[in-house]
Specification:
With about 150 residues, the chain is of the alpha+beta class. Helix content is about 30%, strand content about 25%. The N and C termini lie far apart (about 40 Å).
């Protein structure tokens, strides 16, 4: 089973396709599964917001930087009591009122709203505060567009 799923944020690296080399070191999110190669494995359609570019990358050409909030909870909660663990309780998602973790709140929201809360909560607590605020704004705009489309 793949470690990736639609909605995950990834970073491109070691990309061999000349037209996609500009995606090396850039953050993007997985939009959809693409073809599967017997030689290279699963390929994914990835959108890179900072480049306004879509590309298809193999799993070997990207690394997971943040998972989709809708990923099955077993993988996320198995060791959630371990605070500070980079997978099961990173410090930038813990330490809120009454010991709550951000995941305890966002799993009750839809995808876009959950991501807005997630990125706002970790802004200033992880490496790139500006990027987290941009991600929060991106998901807020998607949610507003979704709501306007349903009127």
């Amino acid at each position: 089973m793949s470690e990736f799923t639609v909605g995950d944020w990834v970073e491109g690296y070691d990309i061999t396709n000349a037209s996609l080399k500009k995606c090396n070191g850039k953050a993007g999110y997985i939009k959809a599964a693409s073809f599967k190669s017997p030689k290279y494995g699963q390929a994914w359609e990835v959108h890179f917001p900072s480049l306004l570019l879509d590309g298809v990358l193999y799993e070997s050409e990207m690394k997971l930087t943040d998972w989709n909030v809708d990923k099955p909870s077993a993988a996320k909660h198995e060791n959630s009591a371990v605070t500070g663990d980079p997978i099961y309780g990173p410090s930038y998602y813990t330490g809120y009122s009454n010991g709550a973790e951000v995941i305890d709140i966002v799993e009750h929201l839809n995808f876009n709203r959950g991501n807005v809360v997630k990125y706002l909560c970790r802004a200033g607590r992880k490496e790139d505060e500006f990027q987290d605020l941009c991600k929060a704004l991106y998901y807020l705009r998607r949610e507003i567009d979704r709501m306007e489309g349903s009127k």
